[in-house]
Amino acid sequence: MKRVLLASLLAIAAATPALAQDFPPPPPVGEPKPFKLPATETFSLPNGMQVTLVPYGIAPKVVVSLRVRAGNVTEGDATWLADLTAAMMKEGAAGRSAGELATTAASMGGDLNVGAGQQATQITMNVLSEFAPAAVQLIGHVAIRPDLPASELARVKANLGRQLSVALSQPGTLADVALARTIYGPNHPYGRVVPSAAQLSGYTIDQIKAFHAGQFGAKRAHLYIAGKFDAAAVKVSIAKAFGGWASGPDPLKLDAPHQAGPRVILIDRPDAPQTTLRLSFDAANAGTDADIPQRVTNSLLGGAFSSRITTNIRETKGYTYSPGSGVAFNPGDALWTFDADVTTNVTGAALTEVFKEIRRMQTEPAPEEESKGIRTYMAGLFAIQNSTSPSLVNTLATRDTLGLPGDWTDRYVPAVLAVDPAAMMASAKASYPLDKLVLVAVGDLKTVEPQLKALPELAKVPFQRVSVP
Amino acid sequence: MEFLRMQKWSLALALAATSLSAPAIAQPAPAATQKLHVDMQYFTLPNGLKVVLAKDTIAPTVTIAVYYGIGFRVEPRERTGFAHLFEHLMFQGSKHAPKGVFDKTVTNAGGINNGSTRFDFTNYYEVLPSSALDRMLWLEADRMANPVIDQAVLENQQGVVGNEVKVNVLNQPYSTWPWIDLPMLANTNWYNSHNFYGDLKEIEAATVPDAKSFFEAFYRPSNAVLVVAGDLDYAATRAAIEKYFAPISKKPAVVQPDISEPRQTAEKYKSRVDALAPKPGYAAGYHVPERLTPEWYAMGLIDQILVQGDDSRLYTKLVQQTGIAGEIGGGINGDLGNMFNYRGPMLWSFSFTHDPTHTPAQITKAVDEVIEGIRAKPVTAVELARAKTKMRSDLYGEIDGGGRVGLVDLLAVHALFDNDPQAINRIEEGFAKVTPALIQKTAQEYLRKTNRSVYVVEPGAKGAAQGGK
């Protein structure tokens, strides 16, 4: 009986007459209409805090997001102290317990989200419009007057410890940790991605209080509000919530020199069905002349679904599911990385194709149609990506963190559209020096290492086995 | 033509007045002065294709989606994973747009596209500048009429899907837990309880005739809905749709298999060791009331009260008070969608990882204290009002989300399952009618222990911080 359904389907197929109609010709694709970001209003409080207001969207919702330039980069060698501080900030503020904070936020239609990233800690609520002033107050309390109760520390540390443990069981995390350590070195904040379990469990409430007291302040803070809201009421609320905040320290400026390749870093994961790959080169910093051409070049090489690498190793060869590439930016630092998880026995073959596509970018100008297509894609993507309040806030906050000028978001699309095939070829030559590659491979090394050693591009490159953490 | 209009919501205002009279109120009452209103046109072509058009002015882009009424729980026996494999095949070119043309057209026009397979549908969508609308309609029509299914594309996508399974399941800790494990345990009907991601052997055994018969059986206009939302002209868009889709042959409606589940009368429990997982995991699922019934609306609010947000009762108990978990994920259809986008039996579930210091029995005891609480006592007016506020805020967030993907999804499933996309303008009414008594009645039947399935993962990885070597 197992084949009955399939058999009946075949019968239906046989009974269906072939389409007789001629299919109409394809209609043309017109030029996109211009997309303009909504107008923003930015001002400073006397204590140095920046505020950006963006009336936007249609639904009666508002995003209130405070970004404070206190993150992993300012925690010294106390890795994840910023994460622990962020988690503790939800445990009570201005005399209200964690439960009371959560209930207050929920009654506005949103959660209170506090999280630390490399550059900043963000405190964000996405609430119904009428609660925008109240959300500003709540965020002010959490940012300025967290209780940081010692009684909750053991539990919060245990939660972070469990997250760390689960993250380290994922091959992608192992690859990312090894890559960062290789590029930036183990003694640079960017190279210290994860703490040891013992280090994490050793942090004290005094360290957390000192981190908050020393690293948080108005001069490091930028409040973004986007959506539907009453601007006058919100401004009153901002002055009340943040006007008395101490200025605190200036944002940290940090050099991030890269350790030159070529190097191959291997992590053994016996019998893994796939190899998790990271291939990296130094990239041009955000806002430099080389920045926009490198972004367009990256999109064509591996950054878009229709990119050359994806078309090759996924759509033609079937070696992988979701390959990709992109540039990660920090202030004064940028790194291009290709990543993919490929079936173990085709690891070498997949990399051969990636190297081939890189060389093709470097030696042949992209055909006009392909080149125009990728520029149009990036212009269109900018409109799509910025069509919600939360994503627009992220775009503006990233721009501001990287120190890009206020009109950068207006100049982005014209700059992208101006990149021609010659500029892309020049960018590819400068951006992907194969003799300086850094390659990380996490997988079944008894099968993978011989495949890598056989690649001409890696013939003279030092191989090193490492462990994480 | 905004799709959210400011209107009075008399029913909600009445409820708000009721909750204001409750003496214990400590939160601002939800100011329910706005009601969702999506402007739309709905019609069906003579060949059975349902069409929803929804105009807005958010951005000069359109979102186009085609939903087919074939989900992974309707796929044929002996071909597990076929619905998902076929989703991939629909990107492999059509008679007038060979392989690569579809994706390239989207990219080069400045857009993005994707597809997914869910319990009761397979969907395809594009977000792109409105200047490309007619061409995309032409492309979607061509692949609805004439997809290319041959040995070359089948083999290629068997490789890609195989890699998708490897990256998401075989090489990942927790892998199928709980999103595949829990339905397989809780359900008894094969359609609801098989491995819908697919056995790699069965994916590899699929043949071209299998694929063609699958297409003939399920990918027909009468089993599909086309949604276009965004910057469009109603009359012109309708004319284009009639031009490209109306010539596709009419075939009878698909007869869906019986996917009903008997009432569960005994608690189920299962555990497995996960070789890659470093920490234990606990998941529980309960069968929920039938979609669109008063009890189902109540179940949606029970979900808000018990598990959504840091104010929820399970979060408070398991995270804040006992420290068993660090976070809890869950919902109705929470792992693969939301409470709106399925038809047939479904689970309300929640899951989390925890430390081995807590046994499954201890966790179940803590869970029972929460669950029995909502079964034993009516919720207060304040707590119910807060749940409704959270639900409304979530709904607005979904509708106003990136690329209109959430809006299009709601329109499509209500057209596909209920022949009534206007129903999305009545969602709020359904929740507004829920009373504390209905919450309690629903909890008593659907949160019975005997309606519960618990699926536990035991860690197989050595050591808490298992990494690579």
Automatic annotation (TrEMBL), chain A:
InterPro entries annotated for this entry?
Metalloenz_LuxS/M16, MPP/UQCRC_Complex, Pept_M16_N, Peptidase_M16_C
Identify the stretch annotated as signal peptide in this record: 1-20
Task: Give yes or no: UniProt keyword Signal.
Answer: yes
This protein's superkingdom? Answer: Bacteria
Could you list this entry's UniProt keywords, alphabetically sorted: Signal
Q: Which residues form the Peptidase M16 C-terminal domain?
A: 204-374
- Per the UniProt record, one Pfam family is Peptidase_M16_C
Peptidase M16 N-terminal domain boundaries: 60-179
Q: Which PANTHER family match?
A: METALLOPROTEASE (PTHR11851), PROCESSING PROTEASE (PTHR11851:SF224)
What name goes with this protein?
Pitrilysin family protein
Which species does this protein come from? Sphingomonas agrestis
Phylogenetic classification of the source organism: Bacteria, Pseudomonadati, Pseudomonadota, Alphaproteobacteria, Sphingomonadales
UniProtKB/TrEMBL annotation, chain B:
**Signal as UniProt keyword:** yes
Q: Give one Pfam hit by family name.
A: Peptidase_M16_C
Annotated keywords: Hydrolase, Metalloprotease, Protease, Signal, Zinc
Domain (Peptidase M16 C-terminal) spans 207-390
Q: What is this protein called?
A: Pitrilysin family protein
From which source organism is this entry?
A: Sphingomonas agrestis
- Return the similarity comment: Belongs to the peptidase M16 family.
InterPro entries named in the record: Metalloenz_LuxS/M16, Pept_M16_N, Peptidase_M16, Peptidase_M16_C
Indicate the secretion signal residues. Answer: 1-26
Which residue spans traverse the membrane? Answer: none
